[in-house]
Design brief:
This protein has a three-stranded antiparallel β-sheet. Helix 5 (100-126) packs across helix 6. The longest helix is centred in the N-terminal third of the chain and has 31 residues, at 2-32. It is built from 55 helices and three strands. The protein has 1025 residues and is mostly helical.
Length: 1025
């Protein structure tokens, strides 16, 4: 029983769903008929009946209908009604989607379909037998009214609709086109549907008709498709919009069938038709391939050919060419109005056709005559989607129409193209347009003067598309006749044309181009083009010109270029470079600025040269000749201050680079006297560079500073001392300190002057300043560092063990703590010189206390005993003194005049300096540590002090990674330490491994073998001995 109830419920639910669907479909139908264009009265009546049906369905109960009819008949009836309403909706939708003309002609057919559907719907509703249901009288009456309305509905087209349809049919059946009648009829149609008969209406109708026609053709409904084509021709006959070329060309093709022009073998239009002996014609290449395959018969008639001879079919070729020409003319005429159309689709098709036609010069000329240049440019300006096709058309115009090239520029085409380039849109055709236009010099002038044109073209040289970059280069080539344009190219970073024009130009042209180049910012990449040998030679030749402007520009440009190492090489490689520069320096009556710039250039050339090039270049050999060195020295005495400075700078550079030049300056007594006399002058720059030259010829020379004879010698030394002590110029003080450090070492007079001077106090002040910088009170700079390094070099003279009168002065100033701090804070050179100074001081101490070694021996037992009584305090003054004794020298180094590395806490900083990578630092630190091991009586304690400061580990690091001199000194120190220290464990293993590796070094092998023997690793009979 429960199961039966469930089945009934399911059936009722299904019927209810169908009922709702029919109600909804009725509502959809009513909505679709609300905006009909033609026969509104009929559709409104139909819609009213269906709307009443929807209301009726909403009021009825599906269960009552089911009770009257049972489930199956009710379901069938509902499904039928749903299907009928859907068909009605589809007819309405199709009707509405068509063009107005198509609807007008097909209104009778649509109305007939709707009449049949109305009758079917009435029958379906009648089958429900609603009159027999237990419903209200009102609903029964409503049902009968709906059935009667649908059954008796009249389906006749309105008189106006019939009349319009008849007129359209009549007009499209006429052989000719009556434009006036077509326009009037179109106006009537527009009025009947409430719209204006303008171009927009016609274009919309044409689009709908074309779509319908394609659908009919796809469904093979040729009659319907033909009728739609006629309707399209009716609209075109109004000439409100232009007719596309398709119909006209199709008609022409119908008149002249092209099948006879196609090769039967390759199916392509023949361009070289030939006839075979049977009389049939083919494309030459196609029939030749046929014969090459071994065929001997005609492909058409299959006749066996007696010969494969081919005869040109001139008549057929003429017909084909005539047909092609006529075909292109038709296409051209059809495309012309499309170019100016406001319909983008028509315009696009016309452009596509036109760019193909314009490959032939005759059509480009016609396009220009039609005034379409401005239209193409307008497409570029508005950045329309068809701008690429417009560019192609402009390219053909620029290529084939010489008389209209200027018009292209005047229309703004170049400005549009440049703007596109600027946005990163670089089409090959755009660059091609510029290339064609720029071929004429007069037009190139206009192109080059357009703002940003040249810089943008230069940017395209690196474009990803090689076609674009190559064409851009060719455009720039066309513009390169103009100096101003070439300078613009160089300003944008492209120098090839600049170099080419410079090499071809006159002196005046080169002068103006050089002046422009001087103002440019040059980069490494742009210099490559300027490395051209001819360019360099022509630039140098400017210095020999009779034109002052030419010489001045040449000097300034060369000075700018020598900032680049590669340009230095190119200039030195040209033998013509140095002579004119020397000539400008030696001419006394010339512009002083030329003397200065020529000297500055020579200095930069020498500075930029490499050691390997000194013998390679003739100019460098000339500069260091005795004649030219003497010339420079003589000119210094007679020149103005600025020229003196430049000449002194040049001599400093030559002295730093060439020993020959340095020796020539040193041996010129007059020059030396002049240099030192300059130190007392009132020209600061001259004074500074004179000191730099003195330092240059003195540094590292065995004889030291070449001093003038007395009394000028004493004056010179006092002047240097005063500069170091009192000058506010740090560079002057630094250079003076450097010269003092190079003064002859064995001159007692010099020592006496220095002893009485304020030099040592000045050195002390410099070191104190460094201490302030290290504390953060003042930031150091390069000049400060240089001053400290040279001051420390000068200090070495005061720390020499052989100069006790100077040595004692150091102790009085309490420099020791400051020097120890430099080991941790100074530059590598400062550390090296400080370690050397400490080595001198320590060696002096060792010599002075060697006779007091016994004091150390007596002190150490008491110190060792005190270790066991750390908890016992001792108030004895003697005991305190004993505890403060040096662990190496005891009381012997307690004097104020002595210096001890241990008491100064210098051991650890020195050991840390052994890890310095800069050459000389580790060696100087080793030298200082060695001074502790010179006194045999203190060796055990000195060794222990070094070991406790991690000295062994640091020495092994030097042996592993140091340079050869440092390794040699480290081996000596390590050997002495081993005499009083026993190593074992990992440290011994590491030492053994490093030493064994050093056996491979020929310079160190013997020393290393001795150390390994001392360690018990090598036997005495080893071959290393």
């Amino acid at each position: 029983m429960d199961g039966n109830i469930g089945m009934e419920d399911v059936g009722t639910a299904v019927l209810q769903e169908l009922w709702n669907r029919v109600t909804l479909q009725a509502m959809v139908f009513v909505g679709e008929t609300s905006d009909m264009v033609f026969e509104k009265g009929f559709f409104q009546e139909f819609s009213k009946s269906i709307s009443e049906l929807r209301v009726l369905l909403q009021a009825l109960n599906v269960e009552k209908v089911e009770a009257a009819m049972s489930v199956r008949p009710t379901k069938t009836a509902l499904e039928t009604l749903d299907s009928q309403l859907k068909r009605a909706c589809k007819i309405i939708k199709d009707y509405k989607s068509r063009s107005r003309l198509s609807v007008l002609l097909q209104s009778r057919s649509v109305l007939s379909q709707m009449k049949a559907l109305a009758e079917e719907i009435a029958k379906t509703i009648s089958s429900w037998q609603l009159v027999n249901l237990n419903i209200s009288v009102n609903l029964k009456s409503k049902t009968e009214q709906i059935i009667n309305s649908l059954s008796s509905m009249e389906f006749h087209s309105a008189v106006a609709t019939e009349s319009l349809a008849t007129e359209v049919e009549k007009l499209i059946n006429e052989n000719g086109r009556n434009r006036q009648n077509a326009i009037k009829l179109l106006q009537k149609i527009g009025e009947s549907v409430g719209v204006s008969s303008n171009a927009s209406l016609v274009q919309n109708e044409l689009a709908l008709l074309k779509k319908e026609k394609e659908e009919m053709e796809a469904q093979k409904k040729q009659a319907e498709a033909f009728q739609l084509s006629q309707l399209m021709q009716f609209l075109y006959s109004t000439e409100i919009v232009m007719s596309p070329r398709d119909e006209e060309i199709a008609a022409y093709h119908h008149q002249y069938p092209t099948e006879s022009f196609r090769c039967p073998l390759c199916k392509e239009m023949m361009s070289d038709p030939v006839a075979i002996v049977c009389g049939h014609s083919f494309e030459r290449k196609a029939i030749q391939e046929h014969f090459w395959r071994g065929e001997k018969s005609c492909p058409i008639c299959r006749e066996r050919l007696r010969s494969t001879e081919l005869t040109p079919n001139l008549s057929l070729r003429s017909s084909i060419e005539e047909w092609k020409q006529r075909d292109m003319d038709l296409k051209f005429q059809a495309a012309l109005p499309g170019i100016t159309s406001n319909d983008h689709s028509i315009q696009n098709r016309a452009l596509e056709e036109m760019q193909v036609l314009m490959e032939r010069p005759r059509y480009t000329e016609k396009v220009a005559e039609e005034g379409l240049i401005s239209k193409f440019v307008e497409m570029l300006k508005n950045n329309q989607p068809n701008r690429i096709a417009a560019l192609k058309c402009l390219f053909y115009l620029a290529k084939y129409c010489d008389n209209h090239k200027e018009a292209i520029i005047e229309a703004g085409a170049v400005r549009c193209i440049v703007r596109q380039f600027y946005k990163g849109e670089a089409e090959p055709d755009a660059v091609a347009v510029l290339l064609e236009l720029s071929a004429r010099e007069a037009l190139a002038e206009k192109i080059g003067n357009i703002r940003d044109c040249i810089p943008v073209l230069v940017s395209l040289l690196n474009y990803s598309n090689p076609d674009v970059s190559q064409k851009a280069r060719m455009v720039l080539q066309n513009l390169s006749y103009n100096t101003h344009f070439v300078v613009k190219m160089a300003e944008a970073g492209y120098f090839q044309q600049f170099v080419a024009l410079f090499n071809q130009g006159t002196h005046e042209t080169r002068a103006s181009m050089a002046a422009a180049l001087i103002q440019m910012e040059l980069k490494g990449n742009s210099i490559r083009d300027l490395e051209d040998k001819t360019f360099i030679h022509n630039l140098v030749q400017m210095l020999s010109s009779s034109s002052r402007a030419c010489i001045s520009a040449g000097l300034k440009l060369i000075k700018k270029l020598v900032a680049f190492p590669r340009m230095v090489k190119r200039l030195l490689a040209d033998p013509a470079t140095v002579p004119p520069l020397l000539g400008l320096i030696s001419i006394v009556k010339t512009d002083p600025r030329w003397n200065q710039e020529a000297a500055a250039i020579l200095a930069l050339l020498v500075e930029g040269s490499q050691f390997t090039e000194h013998q390679m270049y003739q100019g460098l050999q000339e500069l260091q000749s005795q004649h030219n060195i003497n010339l420079f020295l003589q000119l210094i005495a007679s020149s103005d201050p600025q020229t003196k400075v430049q000449l002194l700078h040049l001599l400093v550079v030559l002295g730093n680079k060439f020993d020959m030049a340095r020796n020539l300056i040193r041996t010129d007594n007059e020059a030396i006297s002049y240099l030192f006399s300059s130190l007392e002058g009132d020209q600061p720059e001259v004074k500074l560079w004179a000191m730099k030259l003195v330092y240059c010829i003195s540094e590292g020379h065995p004889a030291g500073v070449p001093l003038p004879p007395s009394p000028a010698k004493e004056t010179a030394i006092k002047t240097l001392a005063n500069i170091l002590s009192d000058s506010p110029n740090i560079e002057e003080r630094s250079t003076a300190a450097g010269i003092i450090s190079q003064l002859p070492n064995d001159d007692i007079i010099i020592d006496e002057i220095l002893c009485k001077s304020e030099v040592l106090k000045a050195i002390h002040g410099v070191i104190c300043n460094l201490d302030g910088e290290s504390d953060g009170t003042r930031a150091p700079d390069n000049s400060d560092a240089s001053l400290l390094e040279n001051a420390l070099a000068a200090l070495l003279r005061y720390t020499e063990p052989t100069k006790p009168q100077l040595y004692r002065q150091v102790g009085k100033l309490e420099l020791y703590p400051l020097l120890v701090r430099i080991l941790s804070r100074g530059s590598s050179l400062a550390k090296q010189r400080t370690a050397t100074a400490l080595a001198h001081l320590s060696r002096s101490t060792s010599l002075s206390i060697s006779d007091s070694a016994i004091t150390g021996k007596q002190a150490f037992p008491l110190l060792n005993v005190m270790k066991f009584f750390s908890g016992i305090s001792c108030c004895s003054t003697g005991m305190e003194e004993c505890v403060n004794l040096c662990r190496v020298h005891g009381a012997a180094c307690s004097s104020r005049d002595t210096f001890c590395l241990v008491k100064a806490d210098a051991l650890k900083p020195l050991v840390q300096n052994l890890s310095e990578k800069e050459s000389g630092v580790a060696e100087a630190a080793l030298m200082a540590l060695e001074t502790l091991l010179t006194d045999h009586s203190t060796l055990p304690h000195a060794t222990a002090a070094i070991v406790d400061s991690q000295g062994v580990v640091a020495i092994l690091q030097v042996l592993e990674k140091g340079d050869l001199p440092a390794k040699s000194r480290a081996l000596d120190l390590f050997q002495k330490i081993l005499e009083h220290t026993r190593m074992n464990g990992p440290l011994a293993d590491r030492a053994e491994r490093i030493l064994v590796q050093l056996l491979q070094d020929d310079d160190l092998r013997k020393k290393v073998a001795l150390v390994l023997k001392q360690m018990g690793i090598l036997p005495e009979q080893s071959s290393y001995f």
